[in-house]
Each structure stands twice: as C-alpha cells, then as structure tokens.
Amino acid sequence: MTALHRFPVKSCSGEELDAAEVEPWGLAGDRHWMLVDPSGETVTARAHPRMLLMRPRLSGDGLVVSAPERADLDDLEVATPQGPLTDVTVFGRAPFAAALADDSAHAWFSDLLDTPVRLVHADDPRRRHANPAYAGPNVPMAFADGYPLNVGSLASLAELNRLIAEGPRAAEGGLEMVRFRPNLVVDGEAPWAEDGWRRIRVGEVVFRVVKGCDRCAVPATDHRTAERFKEPTATLARHRRWDGAVWFGVQLVPDSPATGAVLRVGDEVEVLEAEVAPDGPPR
Question: Which residues form the MOSC domain (predicted)?
C-alpha cells in the first residue's frame, strides 16, 4: 500500500497518514463530520466545489478547520458534540441521528459557502448501515457515500491518464489520485484488476470488496483551485461507463479483524479471492 488518506469532514480536504486504525465503519476519524442543509440533507462538493479548499484536521477532542482562501477568517475550533441529536440524510436515503455542533461552527461554514448549513458529527455510526444488497447485513457507516472504505489503484490511474492524453482534452490529464478521494492507494496490479477482486488482505486486515465506485463530479474538480473540468468524467464515459454511471476504484468492508488493527503505508496487499475483471460495472 502506497498511501493512506483520511477525510475528517465529508467533501473537504483530507489528511495523508502514515498509519490509521481500522474500525467497523472505516478508518478511525474518516468522514465523521458532515455539513447539512436546513432540511438535514448532506451538503457536498458536488454542489459546492469550494468545500475541497477547506482544510480540516482532527484535534484531541474535536476538529480544527482552516480556510486558506479567506485570509480574514480565523481557524474554526469545534469540540466533539455530545448532543443534541438531529435527523440527517445522505443523498435522500433513510434518515438517521447525528450530533449537532455548536452555533459558531454553523455560522463559520455558512459564511464560507454563502448558504445556511449546519455541522454534524457521527457520534454513533451504528445508527446508519451500508446497502445490505452489497455489504451484507448491519454494516455500520459514518458519513461516507455508501461503504466504509474506498481503494484506488495507481495502475488504473496511470491507464486513465494515458487514455486522457490520447483524447481531445489531453491538457486536463495528469490527474493525481487525491482527486478520487480514496482511503487506500495500492500499486502493482494490472489496470482495472481491482474490478475482479472479492477479498484482499492489507497488512493484518482482511477486507471484502463489495462494489465498484460510481463517480460524481468531484473527481472532475481541481482540489487546489475548486475549478471544475470535463476530465476524468469524459474519458471514463468513453471507456468505463455502465448502468448510466462511470466507474473508478472499489469499495471495501473490513472483515477481520473489524476493529483495532492498524494499517500502515508500506503494508503488503494480497489478493485472496478474485474473478476475471467483469466487462461491466464492478459487482
């Protein structure tokens, strides 16, 4: 494994780590905070690309967020809330309860985005579950889109960049992996081999590979400027389009041990079960 990424606030900038503990709902501290609109629905960089410029980091008992684009704005310091709870949703799916941060956090983010938002915390990820059709029953979730972890392959990224370079928007190529916001980055396999993975071991942890990752507009957004482009969506649509979506990377559920083990950059990645990569969406 060549890199580990944690994203403390959903859709904001992430942290690159040397090591991270695995919990049943993903990497410790990953996507445990989220912005929601007044109705409780998630607010993401799909609609607000500038979220990618916000830089959150976990502190001892909470969160610190900076906004480099706003020199007039002090860093936000937020204590981990103990309540009250409010119902929230992620892309209109079943509502679940999350803890509200204090009013100063809501005001800080609302000022930055120029729209009313609230900051919430996944105080108990067991209240939300991944889709059992793919993940199996009762897989807990914090605020990731659909499944506990995501993995990206450098071999697949290199192939994608090669395809972009051959197309009409070659200048938009040379993409970095962070555009796809994976938790784990791996190397050494053939491009798209991960489509056929079913179980892998990374260090001490065995993961089930439960589904491919269908992609939204976020990978087409420059994480340094928040400018949105056509790539990689256009090239993925030519080469990796199935079921009305474009696909890059695969989703993981920790299998054993599901909690307490530590992943480290440099850990060996072993494919335990695989099929021939499908000519269609992964899983």
Answer: 117-272
High-pLDDT (> 90) share of the chain, % = 92
Rounded mean pLDDT, 117-145? 97
Residue 18: exposed, middle, or buried by beta-carbon count in 10 A (0-12, 13-18, 19+)? exposed
pLDDT at 234 over 80: yes
Amino acid letter at 180? F
CB 150 within 8 A of CB 254: no
Measured between alpha carbons, how far is 56 from 65 in angstroms, rounded to an integer? 4
On whether the pTM is more than 0.85, the answer is yes
Asked if 184 and 154 touch (Cβ cutoff 8 Å), the reply is: no
Cβ 22 vs Cβ 65: under 8 Å? no
Please provide residue 179's backbone torsions phi and psi, each rounded to the nearest 5 degrees. Answer: -60, -25
Please write the tens of the pLDDT for every residue from 238-268: 999 999 999 999 999 999 876 789 999 999 9
Q: Distance between CA atoms of 194 and 47, rounded to whole angstroms?
A: 29
Q: Which of 237, 256, 245, 254 is nearest to 282 (CA)?
A: 245
Q: Identify whether the C-beta of residue 256 lies closer than 8 Å to the C-beta of residue 199.
A: no
What tokens were used for 122?
Answer: 């996944």
